[in-house]
Amino acid sequence: MKLITHNMLSSKTIKGVVYGYPLIIRASQVLTKDVDFNPEFIQRMIPKLDWSALKFAAKCVGHEEDLPDEPPANMADEDVLKRIHHVVMEVDVVDGFLECPETKRQFPITNGIPNMLLNENDV
Amino acid sequence: MSKIATPDISHLTAQDYESIYEPAEDSFLMLDALENELPLIMAMKPSLCVEVGPGSGVLITGLATALGPACSYIAADVNMKACMATVATAQKNACSVETFCSDLLSGCGRQLDGKVDVLIFNPPYVVTPPEEVAAGDLQHTWAGGRKGRQVLDRLMPEVPRLLTPQGRFYLLIERENDPEEINAIFRSMELFGKKILERKTGPEHLAIWVYTKLDRAL
């Protein structure tokens, strides 16, 4: 699970949960994988990212210092775009859990794939 | 003219196809339709393509190989084996697709709202008794219940809020699914549709439709 994906996952479907976002990452294995840097993609993706959730995710996996505090005002700054690319596209949570911030219910991440399925009792 | 090369799925075995859908006429019809649409898709400079129920991953992988790394690709399947097959198919074809296991897109809550440039859904469309829907991994892939619509009917209300203003929703519809009624439901949500490709294959009459918020964008 890349952090771009974490940015779009939520436990809001659980009965009684108000936001369910951002999910807490409890990682037991995190890899960084080389992904070709595509500045145009990062520029286009930034407006779709919830920045505070991204900061939170980066902190969960020990990459907080790689990210600016705010989305960049200058979209032409390639150095900043590269750092964002690294956090969003290259950091990969292979094993662990996502945790609902309200109910503490855990969703396993196995082979890099989060399992967001709920039981009938949860919804 | 841009093309979509049919993805290499030689890594998937007969055993895989006991629990995931083996690409068939409907899959290839969607690939052909996406290929025809590539100029329009490229023109909107998408950053996020999402597929619901990717199965083998052949569709989202085909799109990812054609559009390249200037976009992200995410797919959600209710079957973990399909999620794993999708990741493997993407890797086999030298691209990257993120997956998660979820009932439709429920694992996203509202976090995908207004972000999806391209949404693809090849639903379980075969008319079956209602109780056969979701009765097992393979039934998940084809059993559609009443009018073959029971799964699609649950996704439809979510589509307008997921799409970006230019976003395009590609949907496979079989004639038994009642395309007129599907269109009427989407129109009531201010989504406009057009049939872009159709094919008769045995007893089935399959079509690919595209829906957008702007009818002039069709």
UniProtKB/TrEMBL annotation, chain A:
Keyword entries, A-Z: Methyltransferase, Transferase
Name listed for the protein in its UniProt record: Multifunctional methyltransferase subunit TRM112-like protein
Source organism: Hyalella azteca
Similarity field: Belongs to the TRM112 family.
Taxonomic classification: Eukaryota, Metazoa, Ecdysozoa, Arthropoda, Crustacea
InterPro entries documented for this protein: Trm112, Trm112-like
Domain of life: Eukaryota
Keyword Transferase: yes
GO molecular function, one term: methyltransferase activity
GO BP, one annotated term: rRNA (guanine-N7)-methylation
Record-linked Gene3D superfamilies: 2.20.25.10
UniProtKB/TrEMBL annotation, chain B:
Transmembrane intervals: none
Example GO BP: methylation
Residues annotated as domain Methyltransferase small: 48-127
GO molecular function: nucleic acid binding; protein-glutamine N-methyltransferase activity
Entry keyword Methyltransferase: yes
Primary location: nucleus
InterPro entries with a match to the protein in the record: DNA_methylase_N6_adenine_CS (IPR002052), Euk-Arch_PrmC-MTase (IPR052190), PrmC-related (IPR004557), SAM-dependent_MTases_sf (IPR029063), Small_mtfrase_dom (IPR007848)
Keyword line: Methyltransferase, Nucleus, S-adenosyl-L-methionine, Transferase
Intracellular or extracellular location(s): Nucleus
Reactions mediated catalytically: methylarsonous acid + S-adenosyl-L-methionine = dimethylarsinate + S-adenosyl-L-homocysteine + 2 H(+); L-lysyl-[histone] + S-adenosyl-L-methionine = N(6)-methyl-L-lysyl-[histone] + S-adenosyl-L-homocysteine + H(+)
PROSITE patterns xref list: N6_MTASE
GO CC term (a single one): nucleus
Gene3D superfamilies assigned: Vaccinia Virus protein VP39
Oligomeric and partner information: Heterodimer; heterodimerization with TRMT112 is required for S-adenosyl-L-methionine-binding.
UniProt family annotation: Belongs to the eukaryotic/archaeal PrmC-related family.
NCBIfam families assigned to the protein according to its UniProt record, in alphabetical order: hemK_rel_arch (TIGR00537)
Function: Methyltransferase that can methylate proteins and, to a lower extent, arsenic. Catalytic subunit of a heterodimer with TRMT112, which monomethylates 'Lys-12' of histone H4 (H4K12me1), a modification present at the promoters of numerous genes encoding cell cycle regulators. Catalytic subunit of a heterodimer with TRMT112, which catalyzes N5-methylation of Glu residue of proteins with a Gly-Gln-Xaa-Xaa-Xaa-Arg motif. Methylates ETF1 on 'Gln-185'; ETF1 needs to be complexed to ERF3 in its GTP-bound form to be efficiently methylated.
Protein's UniProt name: Methyltransferase HEMK2
Organism: Hyalella azteca (Amphipod)
Gene label: LOC108677603
